[in-house]
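Suppose a classmate hands you a notebook page containing two proteins, each written out with its sequence and a corresponding row of structure tokens. How would you begin to make sense of it? This section walks through that situation. The first entry is reproduced here exactly as it would appear on such a page.
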Amino acid sequence: MDERLKFVGEYVKQERSMSEICRAFGISRKTGYKLVSRYLGQGYIGLYDQSRAPYRQPHAVTEDVESAILVLREMHGRWGARKLRAWLVIHRPRTEWPSVSTIGRILARHGAIVPRIRKRRCPPYLEPFSSCIKPNSLWCADFKGWFRTGDGLRCEPLTISDGFSRYLLSCRVLPAITHRLVQPAFEMVFRQHGLPWAIRTDNGTPFASTALGGLSRLAVWWIKLGIVPERIKPGCPEQNGRHERMHRTLKEEVISPPRSSAVDQQVAFDRFRREYNQQRPHEGIDNRTPASIYTNSPRPYPSRLPEIVYPDHMEIRKVRPSGLLWWNGSEYYISETLVGEWVGMEPINDRQMQIHFGPVKLAILDVANKKLIRPPITKWKRT
């Protein structure tokens, strides 16, 4: 700025020509005349650096487009730029909508978004979804952590979703995590949407227990319906990552803060479920809605609970009261969870038998030493 003032001062003196002054200051005559013109028109303020932004922006976002983006954002306060653009492209295809980054800048300029603090996370574990190839091949279920509604009552939301389409099958308020309450909730979903081939859960109650094979009464019921209960590794919620991601959205939009009563909370859950399935574009399925992909299972809920059918080479035994299994004149404790159920005995060699309950390997019966060898609980896979 000092040099520019000195240059203009030399020019005002009129002691040298423009060419000589420009040569002395090391600039071109075009730059010299531009500085002089700006000084004569604006004074010394004109010598400051000027904005290089174009006077006209032919591709600028119009006020109508910007207003439509802000209105949609106000309606769906948790939707980001990607989801807003996807919804607008689907429902208003005749309008040319700006890019995701431009929509993000519009939201930021109007204070509609708050930058999120990014946390370091471990890489996703994709194995649980390797067999998730079509609707109803894998369902995901979990409880979204309990909280109290405004009237002080405990609320335990049970959520069930389809792993392939992300369709939220159920989001139901339960007062407690018990088999007596959870099984009817699943039965309602089975009657409405049919049976899946597998259900993936964590290792908590009532999905699993410390019994042989980690079986709970709920898991036994699933197996008899032809459903394989798949469990994630303890402490690894990322193995059920699609369902956990839905839980984060559920918490942001419906649970924080909780509603005044359990009835109001269920109404909010039902409203969220309709929007999540039918309106909210999902990036994991090419910005389509879950409802546009999901179809009910062709396996209907049976009117009578079937018994498990074992291969011909297995011997079948019934678990007695108190969870005891009778074999070769001796009793072995299996599990009270399986009282009255049939298990299959598969010969391994002349000394050992593998005990099955449906697809689950419960334990190895060491006939020679008359003891059960309990295997470590691992992930179950479909065969």
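The notebook's second entry, a different protein, reads as follows.
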Amino acid sequence: MDNAAWTISSRLIAGIVLYAGLGWLISQWWGNRPALIAIGAFIGLGLSYYLIFTGLAREDAVRQGRSAQHRTQGNVGTDGKDQA
């Protein structure tokens, strides 16, 4: 990830704010239950962590695929012939 710190922190903040906001809306609809805001924030935090870890795992898989591809190609020149 190019800007991993910004991506991770924005996903955390957005998840917490979004789901806490949904908890607030539901609490207004059901009669002002503050626990729903906290529950929404925890759900948002959990989903944000899930998105962060799956994104990092996907990025790691891409990097490992590139390194494995470079190892199998060996020393190939620009004309496609082996340089060894």
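A careful reader of the second entry would note: The chain has a mean pLDDT of 82.
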